[in-house]
Amino acid sequence: MSANENLRGADVRVLLEKQRAACLSNEPWTAEQRCELIDRAIGLLVDYQEEIVAALAADFGHRSEDFSRLFDVLSPLAAMKYTQSQIAQWMRDEPRHTDRGEAWVQYQPLGVVGILTAWNFPGNLIFNGLAGALAAGNRVMIKLSEFNPHTSALIARIFPTVYAEDEVVIVTGGAEVGQAFCSLPFDHLLFTGATSIGKQVMRAAADNLVPVTLELGGKSPTIISRSADLAAAVNKILAGKLHNAGQICLAPDYVFVPEEKMAEFVSLARAAVAKLFPTLKDNRDYTSVINARHFQRLQGYLDEAREAGVDVIELNPAEESFADQAHHKIVPTLLINPDDSLKVMQDEIFGPLLPIKPYSDIQQVVAYINSHPRPLGLYYFGNHAAEQAFVLARTTSGGVCLNDVLRHAGVETLPFGGVGASGMGAYHGFDGFRTFSHAKAVLRAADGPDLMRPPYTDQVRQFVASLIKR
């Protein structure tokens, strides 16, 4: 059974049963076998890089080829190579101290891991999740997003050339297939996507007590301290915000700016966009919004903000008209201090719109962040050690990047994941290996008297009493 658009719930269950049977009837994969399985994925990224880039461009209408090559080919390629180099070390038994004999943790494959990917970075999400799952020795089923028809068709075509169905299998299809996929009794389920869908995934997984890792995004705040180099901060924030036209789960969602520096921020933002994208409409480096539905959603945020009297500032260096564009590009836009009642301040934006909020003191900023759901990322720009420590200690987010944005997610030695409304669990690197492994406790008991067994003599009682003390 190959991946196709006509899979039904019964079909995906057959695929799971085939993988589970292979898992149970064979010895766990050795480190060498796991490395070889990952090497096949590396080969796919290298051999099909041009096709991957072209498919992503077709799915987005327009997407920077260089950006796709960096983030959907090179980035997952580097992650897989790093994972491959560490597998043998990660698989070693982990000694634990005890005075009762010899103790250790043995990392075992869970069995079959399900992965549901999002549409914004399909290459990155497919191969990054696959790296951890294979490193841990699991069979893997991957459900692709229906919003990437060209990329999904390519992945569905190339994976069976290197993987058997009982090793790694690709599942395509719409919402019905996705629901059936989430309802399978996997040994672990990794989902990347919107919080609203994450809730549905978790409900479906709960029926089979399937543990889940949810990477859900959210509204990641950015703080510019008075101690920051404002020009450098603005350049990094705008560059990060406009990666993939803001369609990144970790994109800076809104920025806190010292109230006396608001005008300067706007001026520097204009200059930053002009340097990054002197033109927008036909610029090969400026990505389109994925589809008409998301384009209209973002336009709705702008319309609502304008009607509410918000100062909406378009950063359009060449003053181009987008009325007759061939794609769904949106001009980078600043929204000055929008009210929290507006949708742009309630929903994850996932587009090139950037609300700017003035502040007078850092405690006000931290209080605001803590009054909202915990975000996937938080960004702080500044050189004030005490203030930085205050922000780190008093806020909770999936991860933090200091004096930059996004880049912590590319560090394979750091866990990547959310907290609260932005998700649960983590993967990447060793944290991915642990997420997709069962940490089995093992004790080789030492010889000697066992106080836990009767008869409980006076001598035993006296000894136990002697131990119960402060």
Question: What's the helix and strand layout?
Answer:
Elements: H1 9-25, H2 31-47, H3 49-60, H4 65-90, E1 94-96, E2 101-109, E3 112-116, H5 122-135, E4 139-143, H6 149-158, E5 168-171, H7 175-182, E6 188-192, H8 195-206, E7 212-215, E8 220-224, H9 230-242, E9 252-258, H10 262-276, H11 292-307, E10 311-314, E11 333-336, E12 353-359, H12 362-370, E13 377-381, H13 385-394, E14 399-402, E15 423-424, H14 429-435, E16 437-445, H15 458-467
Parallel strand pairs: 3-4, 3-6, 4-5, 6-7, 8-9, 8-13, 9-12, 11-12, 13-14
Antiparallel strand pairs: 1-2, 2-16, 7-15, 10-11
Helix pairs in contact: 1-7, 2-4, 2-5, 3-4, 3-6, 4-5, 5-14, 9-10
Family: Belongs to the aldehyde dehydrogenase family.
GO molecular function, one term: aldehyde dehydrogenase (NAD+) activity
Keywords: NAD, Oxidoreductase
Structure in words:
- Helix content is 42%, strand content 17%.
- It is an alpha/beta fold.
- It has two domains: 9-216 and 420-443, Aldehyde Dehydrogenase, Chain A, domain 1; 220-410, 3-Layer(aba) Sandwich (Aldehyde Dehydrogenase, Chain A, domain 2).
- The protein has a seven-stranded mixed β-sheet with strand order 10-11-12-9-8-13-14, sandwiched between helices. Strands 5-4-3-6-7-15 form a six-stranded mixed β-sheet, sandwiched between helices. It has a three-stranded antiparallel β-sheet with strand order 1-2-16.
- Helix 2 (31-47) packs antiparallel against helix 5 (122-135), helix 4 (65-90) packs parallel to helix 5 and helix 5 packs across helix 14.
- The longest helix is centred in the N-terminal third of the chain and has 26 residues, at 65-90.
- The termini are far apart.
